[in-house]
């Protein structure tokens, strides 16, 4: 299952107000993001991607933000996931995948 499917799952769980499913999906989303970022960063290092440091920083900031949301949710500091948060998540991933990741893949394919 990809990022977007997980975000859709999150939105559906939020809609029905199921806290345990939201917690599980946030957990899976974080795991998936970490695995995906590690794999991509490995590819960037292997192919000598010129914007590696910048891209790595974007991953780190996103991972930190998602970890914080996850932690706040599990600790009950965040009661639900707002529509803005889901939109941000969706927008970030689409922008990141279409712009940043594609640039990395294209440059990697040239090397
Ligand atoms: Fe990326």
UniProtKB/TrEMBL annotation:
Highest taxon of source: Bacteria
Ranges in coiled-coil conformation: none
Keywords of the record: Iron, Metal-binding, Oxygen transport, Transport
Gene Ontology MF terms in the entry: metal ion binding; oxygen carrier activity
Cited InterPro entries: Haemerythrin_Fe_BS, Hemerythrin, Hemerythrin-like, Hemerythrin-like_sf, Hemerythrin_metal-bd
Pfam families (UniProt xref): Hemerythrin (PF01814)
Occurrences of domain Hemerythrin-like (ranges): 7-101
Family of the protein in this entry: Belongs to the hemerythrin family.
Full protein name: Hemerythrin family protein
Species the sequence originates in: Caldichromatium japonicum
Lineage, opening ranks: Bacteria, Pseudomonadati, Pseudomonadota, Gammaproteobacteria, Chromatiales
């Amino acid at each position: 299952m990809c990022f977007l499917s997980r975000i859709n799952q999150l939105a559906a769980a939020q809609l029905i107000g199921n806290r345990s499913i939201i917690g599980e999906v946030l957990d899976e989303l974080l795991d998936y993001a970490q695995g995906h970022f590690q794999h991509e960063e490995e590819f960037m290092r292997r192919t000598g991607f010129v914007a590696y440091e910048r891209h790595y920083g974007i991953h780190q900031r996103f991972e930190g933000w998602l970890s914080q949301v996850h932690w706040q949710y599990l600790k009950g500091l965040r009661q639900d996931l707002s529509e803005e948060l889901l939109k941000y998540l969706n927008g970030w991933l689409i922008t990141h995948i279409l712009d940043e990741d594609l640039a990395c893949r294209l440059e990697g394919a040239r090397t």
